[in-house]
């Protein structure tokens, strides 16, 4: 199913119609090149910021590293071997899934 709400030729057609309906004076303004304007010279940043003296930092005393107690080792007992789950033999299991009658016509 095609997308019919907005055909692909609509946007180029709109641009062509706008370009043709533009007055001649506006078209001439688009073709005029502007002269190069020099960039303004800004003062450098260090001239704007006055020199400030560094403040004296307060003395911070050394704090001793705390000694942490050892983590106790936990002995986890091993689990005993679990008994095996009884299963049916493979040939008996597949025979019970097959129908006893023929299903093909």
């Amino acid at each position: 199913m095609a997308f019919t709400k907005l055909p692909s030729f609509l946007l180029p057609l709109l641009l062509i119609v706008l370009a043709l309906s533009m007055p001649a004076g506006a078209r001439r303004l688009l073709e005029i090149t502007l002269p190069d304007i020099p960039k303004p010279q800004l003062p450098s940043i260090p001239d704007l910021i006055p020199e400030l003296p560094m403040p004296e930092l307060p003395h911070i005393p050394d704090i001793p590293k705390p000694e942490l107690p050892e983590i106790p080792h936990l002995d986890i007992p091993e689990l005993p071997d679990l008994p095996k789950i009884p299963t049916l033999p493979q040939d008996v299991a597949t025979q019970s899934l097959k129908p006893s009658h023929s299903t093909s016509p």
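Residues 98 and 104 are 13 Å apart (CA to CA). The helical segments are 10-21, 24-31, 45-48, 90-97.
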